[in-house]
Design brief:
Two copies of one chain form a homodimer.
Chain A (H helix, E strand, L loop, with lengths): L11 H8 L3 H9 L6 H13 L6 H8 L4 E6 L5 H16 L3 E6 L4 H13 L4 E5 L4 H12 L4 E4 L8 E6 L1 H14 L5 E4 L10 H12 L9 E2 L13 H13 L7 E4 L2 H13 L9 E3 L6 H4 L6 E3 L2 H16 L9 E4 L2 E3 L9
Parallel strand pairs in A: 1-2, 1-3, 3-4, 4-5, 5-11, 6-7, 6-8, 8-9
Antiparallel strand pairs in A: 10-12
Helix pairs in contact in A: 1-2, 1-3, 5-13, 6-7, 8-9, 10-11
The structure holds a DNA duplex.
Chain lengths: 353, 353
DNA sequence: TGATATTAAGTTAACGTTAACATCCTCTCC
DNA sequence: GGAGAGGATGTTAACGTTAACTTAATATCA
């Protein structure tokens, strides 16, 4: 009907002027608090409808000094890890009346910072960060924490005296995965997804090394293989190619491993492809263990033995800890929660009877 | 060091007072515009650092009347469809300096509305909506569009004279998938994932029906099966169980189909499980086609023939169309773009030679 | 040498709300 | 019938910024 000119949206004051009342009266109608006569309320609501009035959240939140919104920053969104976390966080928050804004940062410091800033700029009441850590990003995060924004980090290194942390016990998960292979009699066990030089950062690799050590198995650095030449931090699905290449390299060794522990399920999937391509069978020739128990793990051939980390609980915990800080219920020292992982044994390590 | 009391954050005015200049001068330093002497700039920056000053985005955006932020509402976040879309949108936007806030709404009208409202409350400059449509949600979306917020919908019905739409050609995709099966000689072809009664809403089902019609094959309603008793709109992964149950139902028919077209890849995966469980082989006994070409499709046994829809392009287009509306470059009639799908033939329909 | 830029500030008035307080009117109830 | 309670408004002053304008000092040039 009416020409759709992009007119300026009506404000609360406009509505008030139209109805012939004070802005405050309109505000009371909109927010449903304070005394307003039925007659006035109706007139106001009518005008609101007619004028397509929508309240301006910026002004509102500016005045109220809170947004009831939490920001979540995740890296690779296509990783089931992230999506399960996001869902759990959202659910816990919505239960308490908080909204969730999610920002994606594809594993670059620049984008991390952009995401942090844009969320903080919108005055989110708190921040949950689940990206991989990097120096510049962490620096900005520290500043934000310093400025008083409540923060919880998930599955990620970060030290700050007012920032809580939640993570899975990646060390122990890696340990158990490796132990499982050792228990099956394997002596030459490879690790795919990161080079030996990353051992200080990567808990799963540390767990692997610890399990070998505990059982008196020597560490063969040639059996630990990541992507050569570059950083090992790449988005989820693309680690599949790392797994594939890594496995090829392991298979070409003079004495190849009889089992491999892959850094995550995607890597494991890539490794499986390489094994099949070489005409070898799983688990008879090579046993494979993954990590994360993504939906993929059920559908590989054979189904993948993997380590499940409790994403849902991590999300819930993160949300709860953050809300506690936001509402100021407690003002404790930074807290760190580490949650147990669970080994899920499937046919990529043990043939079905 | 200092007790970490949650003090009120410093404002621009606080900084100005500390340095002994006007607030405007501090603003100029922060935003890097206007003239400021090197000496003053340094003093201000020093104070900014010392006081942990962060600008208040609410106030800033309120004054500037824009946020350079776009909101994206998606349903099931664990669906690769959504995540690919989100990534493409984010990339296109960040290229133009816009931020992206993502809200998840798990397929409920209440959550749709909550997501729309929370984004609009934060005065996003525009909205991209990719949830399944529902009556109440659409009503609110109309109101928001009426109030002048630029909106683009993706892969979803919605009619409004200022709302653009992008989608894949689901009808044609469904048609080609079915045609492919017909070309292979199949005459009894099932559809899994929605009941016959949903045909008016579901383009993929319409394509299936059209292909049958074109080749003179009769429609057997018993071969079209969804989840019984409930709505067919469920989150991605859980359609796996629908596929499983649906296939079981089809297999128990007196005269079972020789091929099925599943509404999406998850449904197809469930169907495959049921076929295997029945001791039948794919594609010899039953051929299976999916839809979406999710990463899963490559890893099923056998790999899944499926229809790929160009998610990345849909995301890019949506972002571009929205930005055009936001910047007011054009104020056209609502535009609708429908993008071609591509049939990807794998071994779930054609045995490898 | 005056006229005109340029640089470096400061001042004012919003942006659209709402908390806090003030005002006035109408009932109750002892 | 006067005190007190409650209902229905209005007024004022922020929330923290910045656009637009003003002022004033210094530099530049014909």
């Amino acid at each position: 009907m009416s020409r759709n000119v992009r007119r300026k949206p009506a404000t609360l004051t406009d509505v008030a002027a139209t109805v012939g009342v004070a802005p405050m009266t309109v505000s009371r109608v909109i927010n449903g608090n304070g005394y307003v006569s039925e007659e006035t309320r109706e007139k106001v609501l009518e005008a609101v409808k007619k004028m397509n009035y929508r309240r301006n959240g910026l002004a509102r939140n500016l005045k109220r000094q809170k947004t009831e919104t939490v920001g979540l920053v995740i890296g690779d969104i296509s990783n089931p890890f992230s999506t399960e976390l996001a869902n759990a966080v959202r659910e816990s928050l919505s239960f308490r009346g908080y909204n969730l804004f999610i920002c994606i940062s594809e594993h670059s410091a620049k984008e991390d910072i952009a995401a942090f800033d844009s969320l903080v700029d919108h005055n989110v009441d708190g921040l949950i960060v689940a990206t991989r850590s990097n120096e510049e990003g962490d620096e900005r995060l520290s500043e934000i924490a310093d400025s008083g924004v409540p923060i919880v980090v998930v599955g990620r290194d970060f030290k700050h005296d007012s920032v809580d942390a939640v993570s899975a016990d990646n060390f122990n998960g890696g340990f158990e995965a490796t132990q499982h292979l050792i228990d099956l009699g394997h002596k030459r066990i490879g690790f795919i997804g990161a080079g030996f030089e990353n051992r200080s950062r990567l808990k799963r690799l540390q767990g692997y090394l610890a399990a070998l050590a505990k059982h008196g198995l020597s560490v063969d650095e040639r059996l630990i293989t990541g992507r050569k030449g570059t950083s090992d931090d790449v988005p989820g699905y693309s680690t599949e190619s790392i797994g594939y290449e890594g496995m090829k390299r392991l298979l070409s060794l003079p004495k190849r491993p009889t089992a491999v522990f892959a850094r995550n399920d995607f890597t494991a999937v890539g490794a499986i492809s390489a094994v099949k391509e070489a005409g070898l069978s799983i688990p008879q020739d090579i046993a494979v263990v993954g990590f994360d128990d993504t939906p993929l793990a059920l559908h590989t051939m054979p189904p993948l033995t993997t380590v499940r980390q409790p994403m849902k609980i991590q999300g819930q915990l993160a949300a709860e800890m953050l809300l506690r800080r936001i509402t100021g219920e407690v003002e404790p020292e930074a807290e760190e929660k580490i949650l147990d992982c669970e080994l899920i044994i499937r046919e990529s390590t043990v043939s079905q009877v």
